[in-house]
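Side project, low priority. Logging it here so it doesn't get lost.
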Amino acid sequence: MNLPNYITMTRIFSIPLLMWILLSTRFTSVHGEKELLASALFICASITDGIDGYLARKRGQITTLGMLLDPLADKLLIAAAFVTLVQLNPRLVPAWVAVVIIGREFLVSGLRSIAAQQGVTIAASPLGKGKMISQVIAISLLILGYQLGEFLFIGTVALWIVMIFALASGVDYFIKFSRAILRGDQSSSR
């Protein structure tokens, strides 16, 4: 296993720690210390997404394992954070919002998998990158807003921005998928 893959693994191993910090009664949060710690951990874990990809490309260490683990780690981190926020307080993140955002991840992964079986690669779009950045911001602010109310309004606004990016990028991937597969079917039927 190479360095970029180790970095990706730290993102995966940070997930249970993040959930434990947020859900455990071992931590008290009089002044938001627990939320500051959880938010810092979440942000650090999110940053590893850029670091592992950069190092893999720069060092020529792109591997099949890395191509599998990196998007899986992203999806697990985001899904765990949203599910934990729903459990903490459904008013922070309503369950239906978490289902839409996580469902989009399953949809895009499924479309990419089907396209790959057809020999087609669907590239990441700027909408997808915007979605990821907005998710990191929204989740961080919502974690902080759990005890530190001044972050809650901004976090809620950011959550709606995530919804817009999630829906728009999901539609974008579906359109790209449809065009790629239909184009492939038309060329094979000739």
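Brief comment: Residues 152-188 form the longest helix (37 residues).
Revisit when time allows.
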